[in-house]
Amino acid sequence: MAALLAVFEVGRHLLPDSSKPSADPHGPALTVKIPSGSTAVEIGDQLQTAGIVIDGGRFRNYAKEQGEGADFKAGTYRFQAGTDYDRIIERLNAGPPPPVTIPLTIPEGLRLTEIADVVAARTGITRNQYLSAVRQAAPPPGFPEAKSMEGFLFPATYQIKPKTTAQALVSQQLTAFEQAFAQVDMTYAQSKNLTTYDVLKIASMIEREAAVDHDRPLISAVIYNRLHLGMALQIDATLLYELGSWTHQLTVSELAAPTPYNTRVVHGLTPTPICNPGLKSMQAAAHPAKVDYLYYVAIGDSGRHYFTDNLDDFNKHAHGG
Q1: 261 and 149, same structural domain?
Q2: Is position 273 within any domain?
Q3: Which member of 68, 183, 217, 222 has the greatest number of CB atoms within 10 A?
Q4: Same domain? 237 vs 175
Q5: What are the b/e assignments for 11-38, b being 16+ CB within 10 Å?
Q6: Which residues does 321 contact at the CB level (< 8 Å), separation at least 6?
Q7: Distance of CA 197 to the CA centre of its chain
Q8: Are 235 and 255 spatial neighbours (Cβ–Cβ below 8 Å)?
Q9: How many domains are contained in the chain?
Q10: Do residues 195 and 304 share a domain?
Q11: Is residue 6 part of a domain?
Q12: Are 210 and 247 in contact (CB under 8 A)?
């Protein structure tokens, strides 16, 4: 009898392992969500309920025989029905794949309608959906006099999931704005009787005017100095914002019109920011350079500006002198 049993044991191991079905995946991928803290029994039941395995208990027993199950990770998985047990175990040990995301880069200096165009071109969110979400949003705390959402839609790279809504994206941008602005020391600006909203307006002008970081605090200084002296800011980007185009060729009549954003005529800051600035411009807006400059002019195509406190000197450089 002992010899017969020995032969049976040898023969049993020569037969296919009946606890593991042959792999025959078929059909579309099925989704199963494994909650945190699930036991091997529960995971087997979840795989069976999802239609991935025929018998959850059989999967559990196989995993136990292989010494597996202790390292299974919670998360959402996709398998075809009939996927090999070893492949399922491998995936459960590795954890769920990271969610598919689309990197959405929003550059500094865009007005909110331009951001809507970028969002529509690179995500599944339409322009109208984005603008509607912006209209429904409210400016962050600390900006009680804010008249619009312009300036608060923080430029950055966001990882967008396929089902991200316009409201969720706008919420991410507002959170990013609050985190960025929290890094801005308002002490000096407040000593000049400027509010947080004033600083944001100045930051938006700096963002449109400065092409290199070196110039940001210098342009900020020009703005502060002109405000202090009661001079018009004379920044054409503010009027271009009002007219809806950064590349528009301004006419003599447009430059002379006393419209709210024409800082050649109307003194003081604009009613709202003119774009959505980044952190560097915000910081420059709160911390201008300690210089007496009142004028600046672009130096060719270098991206840099020439700064001066003398009108004749400015005119000389402005006319190629």
Answers
A1: no
A2: yes
A3: 222
A4: no
A5: eeeeeeeeebbeeeeeeeeeebebeeeb
A6: 315
A7: 22
A8: no
A9: 3
A10: yes
A11: no
A12: no
Select from 166, 181, 196 the last residue of a domain.
181
- Position 21 scores a pLDDT of 56
CA 258 to chain centre: 37
Q: Are residues 250 and 194 in the same domain?
A: yes
The DSSP line for 117-159 is HHHHHHSS--HHHHHHHHHH--PPTT-TT--SSTT-S--SEEE
Inter-helix orientation angle 196-209/216-229, to 10°: 120
Query: What secondary structure does DSSP assign to 10-66, as a single string?
Result: HHHHHS--TTSPPP--EEEEEEEEE-TT--HHHHHHHHHHTTS-S-HHHHHHHHHHT
User: End of a domain among 41, 68, 94?
Assistant: 94
Q: Are residues 123 and 236 both part of a single domain?
A: no
* Mean pLDDT (10-residue bins), the chain, 321 residues: 34 41 70 90 93 92 90 92 92 88 96 98 96 97 95 97 94 98 98 98 98 97 98 97 97 96 97 98 98 95 93 87 57
SS3 296: strand
Q: Which two tokens stand for residue 69?
A: 């199950």
* Residue numbers of the domain that contains 274: 187-318
The enclosing H or E element of 280 equals helix 279-286
Type of residue at 317:
H
Distance CA 154, CA 115 (A): 10
- Given the structure tokens 């059989």, which residue do they identify? 58
- Count CA atoms closer than 13 A to 77's CA, side-chain side: 27
Minimal CA–CA distance to 209: which of 291, 302, 109? 109
Sign of CA dihedral 274, 275, 281, 283: positive
Contact by Cβ (8 Å): 281, 207: yes
**Is residue 276 included in any domain, yes or no?**
yes
